[in-house]
Amino acid sequence: GIEALYGESGKKYESDLFIDCTGFRALLLENVNAAWESWSDIMFNNCSWVCRRDYENKERELVPYTNCTGLSSGWVWNVPTYSRIGTGYNYSSNHQSIGDALEEFQKFIGADERTKFKHIQWKTGVRKEIWKKNVCGIGLSAGFIEPLESTSLFNTHHGILSLIDILNDNPGQFERDIYNHNMREHLDGWKEFVEAH
What we know:
Layout: E1 4-6, E2 12-14, E3 18-20, H1 27-31, E4 36-38, E5 47-53, H2 58-61, E6 67-71, E7 74-80, E8 85-91, H3 98-109, E9 117-121, E10 125-127, E11 131-132, E12 135-137, E13 143-144, H4 152-167, H5 173-196
Helix pairs in contact: 4-5
């Protein structure tokens, strides 16, 4: 396990339990060799091109829902917020090149030269042990399915509440096993739900 962490100032932080919320990097879980189980064989999307757009007609475009549209190698999401529209193309880099994906996305949204795009890559899967030794992963460090159903916030919330419930019982290995089983069952359920799409 991990005995202590050191901050940038050199300050030492000791604890019986460390929560890894370092996102995809999973710095603490990697340190305790928590193995990764890839789901890329059934969850093909692994990249996104994203951008922000201004409204052309806010009264018509500011709707209270997310709109998703299938393209050649994935799908485009469109999320209106009060001040702008967030949009992105989630696609499979095994089925379309980065350049072709950007071109298809730009054409689909009618982008002009002022639109700034950002490319994001991710891995789909889960830690075989989300709580290993004295490190518990919460959020993206524990696992990620893909953005289709925006499950990350819900899964983070579920992980936190599940951990709180177990911490009330002075946890040992049995409680870690229960937590891992429950979280894996939860994430497996979401994986199957998204797979059905």
